[in-house]
Amino acid sequence: MTNTTVVQAANLTENLESSLKKPLLGVNIDHVATLRQARGVSYPSPLAAALLCEQAGADGITIHLREDRRHIQDADVYEIAEQLTTRMNLEMAATTEMLEIARKVKPFWVCLVPEKRAELTTEGGLDVAGQMPWLTDYIAKLQAVGIKVSLFIDPEDKQIAAAVTCGADAIELHTGAYAEAGLVCNIDKMNAELTRIKQAVRTAQDADSNMLINAGHGLTRDNVYAIAQINGIYELNIGHALIADAVFVGLEQAVIMMKNAMHQSA
Ligand SMILES: CC(=O)[C@@H](O)[C@H](O)COP(=O)(O)O
Ligand SMILES: NCC(=O)COP(=O)(O)O
């Protein structure tokens, strides 16, 4: 373990206590890379974005190294890992190729997510219950080199129970259905999804009090408050909407605005 990792681990324990009331903000910077890849040039730099987000108060940086490399590239992962002062959360599919990369980079967190080639963004949660032997072994191989492992799952009892059995250090509850209901102003559906997420947090707490509970996907300044108020959520990972805000107000201000939205109702 490097000195940085020891400090990060100590901070994690400390943060766990305080964040039970106030979730942390992990900023997903995939779409800084999307903009760069649109032209195949070297700017804007995801590394510069990550460092600016940290300066503005982000508690961690999330990047998703997709198998098709549509945004974040391998070089970004190595470069960002070297220079972050908070924690990297590396999202990836549970493939053999990604396992090798993660074991070299050693991010603080790996978050295992499902991937489909044709999707615009992650459509559903990982089917942990359907691939228990593979994931149990995969998680152990990451943990063996000191990486903490999170599983991106739908808020379903079956998946939560499977995540505990597989030995995950954390789960990240997929908030996409809640966010999509808000986009089409379906308030009943939004409330039902919120209830489902709250219930999932309770189920996870009852199943394993040491497992961290994160949430994310599709969160915006308009819909984040209700999720951030749920007791027991450790961290929210937010990307697309925050980067969209940054186009108008700048990245640092967008981070500050998102943190404010998490802590006070609009
Ligand atoms: C797993 C998840 O919800 C997202 O963070 C994911 O990274 C989305 O992928 P895109 O950034 O490619 O939309
Ligand atoms: N895991 C969710 C995430 O990192 C950000 O998702 P989004 O805000 O880009 O939808």
Automatic annotation (TrEMBL):
One of its GO terms (molecular function) is pyridoxine 5'-phosphate synthase activity. It is found in: Cytoplasm. GO terms for biological process: pyridoxine biosynthetic process. This is Pyridoxine 5'-phosphate synthase. Keywords: Cytoplasm, Pyridoxine biosynthesis, Transferase. The keyword Acyltransferase does not apply. The record marks 172 as: Transition state stabilizer. The active site is at residues 64, 91, 217. Belongs to the PNP synthase family. 3-amino-2-oxopropyl phosphate binds at residues 28, 39, 218, 239-240. Homooctamer; tetramer of dimers. Catalyzes the complicated ring closure reaction between the two acyclic compounds 1-deoxy-D-xylulose-5-phosphate (DXP) and 3-amino-2-oxopropyl phosphate (1-amino-acetone-3-phosphate or AAP) to form pyridoxine 5'-phosphate (PNP) and inorganic phosphate. Pathway: Cofactor biosynthesis; pyridoxine 5'-phosphate biosynthesis; pyridoxine 5'-phosphate from D-erythrose 4-phosphate: step 5/5. 1-deoxy-D-xylulose 5-phosphate binds at residues 30-31, 66, 71, 121. Its EC number is 2.6.99.2. InterPro entries: Aldolase_TIM, PyrdxlP_synth_PdxJ, Pyridoxine-5'_phos_synth. It catalyses: 3-amino-2-oxopropyl phosphate + 1-deoxy-D-xylulose 5-phosphate = pyridoxine 5'-phosphate + phosphate + 2 H2O + H(+). It comes from Psychrobacter luti. Its main location: cytoplasm.
